[in-house]
Amino acid sequence: MAIETTRSKLRSLLREYFPAAVGAFGEAGLTSREVRAAPAPGKAARMTRRQLMAALRRSGRERDLEVWADRLRRVFRQEQMRRPPLVEDAFGEQACVLPAQLEAACSAADRLAGASGEAFRRHPDSERSYS
């Protein structure tokens, strides 16, 4: 529930202030690590290929950096409706926080699933068949 809510919030936020990003990350998904590489629209449009590749590396991407950087550069430079720079920066900060929240929720769910599975395996009746 929390994961889908966070994903929806991110999608809504990006549609409101940076719709090009929704298309840019469509194939990888809005919850991919590459989303963290996207600054506010004005800054993104001015980024060089080298700067985009560095941002992608910082986000954790290791392969296909050139392909990603070229695609993002094309998308980010498309003409689009814009907000005042301070508003874009504020939206950008919020857009960076949402994937981190999503990652934390996924990590917590994975830990809970692992702990539950381990507890079940240790239970004395876990080997019994109830057919």
UniProtKB/TrEMBL annotation:
Q: What is this protein called?
A: Uncharacterized protein
- Recorded source organism is Sinosporangium siamense
